[in-house]
Design a protein that fits this description.
The chain is built from twelve helices and twelve strands. It is elongated and about 85 Å long. It is α+β, with helices and mostly antiparallel strands. Strands 2-1-4-3-5 form a five-stranded antiparallel beta sheet. A four-stranded antiparallel beta sheet has the order 9-10-11-12, covered by helices on one side. A three-stranded mixed beta sheet has the order 6-7-8, sandwiched between helices.
């Protein structure tokens, strides 16, 4: 069974109605949100006062003709969603809702949608023949079949005036070109991320902020292109989710003079555990050999002494366990598939074999 608050149709960017158990406000606020193919959503005004609920398939005003979409939000939630996107209801002239979709409307929509894949393939061929540096990522037909939106990706500006003429002549429709980015394309296609969940851009995320490799460095993540890149080929959006927490935690860590001077030599900083407030040091400058964990307070103390010209005896006052044993255990288990075998259970089962000698004997009575 699906959740009561989720949309009834299987679409991307599904909405949750957290006001479902409260009185309906669609009569007070005639604004509704409608979803079309993939992640495209728009707002409309229900001037006719038609009773609409989430999941209803309706016919709405378009330019030209009409389009067919699914209601996702109504009433107060639609107004809150509008404000969330930074739009003012007073400054926008919303298109109208015509009616609930008829069977003929749905049949016409399905007929148009069945041509989208072939149209996209042919559209790519035409763009290639014209020598345009662009990629047609998707095609979306309007509900009445008179217009189609061609979503394309391009690094530079594209002059597609000639391309539109070819498309209109080839497909006998009105053409609208809409440029999208790699993240938006991934949201349209959908998929499962490395975390095992549906892609954020396909399930809930609508605004795409730029992500830099500094976000990974601040979180002490290995700068590995394969692990940090999403299915769109760009850096994962989730790198930004916890970044503010890490930046706040790093504020009390020293940024300069991280090389500590001791009697044994210069200790070089290699790693920081922000939340455990520990910095890892090694006397070898070439690599992390025999790393020693040093508490943050101790590091600050050594830095202050080094500034005064004092040289400390040891990195830590009391000997703290190094990571040499921990690292060797972890490295040995990375590619060892047998580590998942529960060897401890097998060892516990062995003593059971000794009970075979007592088979048939009665237990002593108390």
């Amino acid at each position: 069974m699906g959740c009561a608050g989720c949309t009834f149709n299987n679409t991307k960017l599904s909405s949750y109605d957290w006001l479902e158990n409260l009185p309906d406000t669609s009569e007070e606020i005639d604004l509704i949100e409608v979803q079309f193919k993939n992640t495209r959503k728009e707002f409309f005004r229900n001037e006719a006062g038609i009773y609409l609920k989430r999941g209803d398939i309706i016919a709405v005003e378009s330019s030209p003709g009409h389009d067919i979409g699914t209601v996702t939000l109504t009433g107060r939630l639609a107004l809150l969603q509008l404000k969330k996107k930074g739009l003012d209801k007073k400054n926008i002239e919303f298109p109208k809702v015509y009616r609930k979709a008829r069977e003929s409307d749905i049949e016409k929509l399905e007929n148009s949608r069945s041509k989208e894949t072939q149209t996209m393939i042919r559209a790519r061929q035409i763009a290639k023949n014209l020598g345009l540096e662009m990629k047609v990522g998707d095609v979306e037909y309007q509900g009445d079949g008179t217009k189609a939106i061609f979503y394309y990706i391009a690094e530079d500006r594209v002059d597609f005036r000639e391309l539109i003429k070819h498309y209109a002549r080839e497909f006998s429709i009105r053409v609208e070109m809409k440029q999208i980015g790699a993240r938006q394309e991934a949201g349209m296609i959908g998929g499962i991320g490395s975390c095992g969940r549906e892609l954020c851009c396909s399930s809930w995320r609508t605004n795409f902020t730029s992500v830099s490799t500094n976000a990974a460095r601040y979180q002490e993540l290995p700068v590995n292109a394969q692990k940090l890149a999403g299915q769109c080929g760009k850096l994962k959006c989730c790198l930004m989710y916890e970044l503010d927490t890490y930046l706040d935690a790093r504020a009390e860590f020293p940024k300069e003079l991280l090389e500590l001077e001791t009697r044994k030599g210069i200790a070089h900083h290699f790693k920081t555990d922000i939340f455990k407030r520990i910095l890892w040091y090694s006397y070898s400058k070439e690599g992390p050999i025999d790393l020693t964990p040093v508490p943050l307070d101790r590091v600050k103390e050594i830095i202050m002494k080094n500034k005064k010209g004092e040289v400390v005896e040891e990195l830590v006052d009391a000997k703290i366990e190094t990571t040499k044993a921990i690292d060797s255990m972890t490295i040995g288990q990375v590619d060892d598939i047998n580590r998942f075998d529960n060897k401890t259970l097998n060892k516990k089962r062995k003593p059971r074999n000794k009970r075979k000698n007592f088979k048939g004997k009665k237990k002593p009575q108390a």
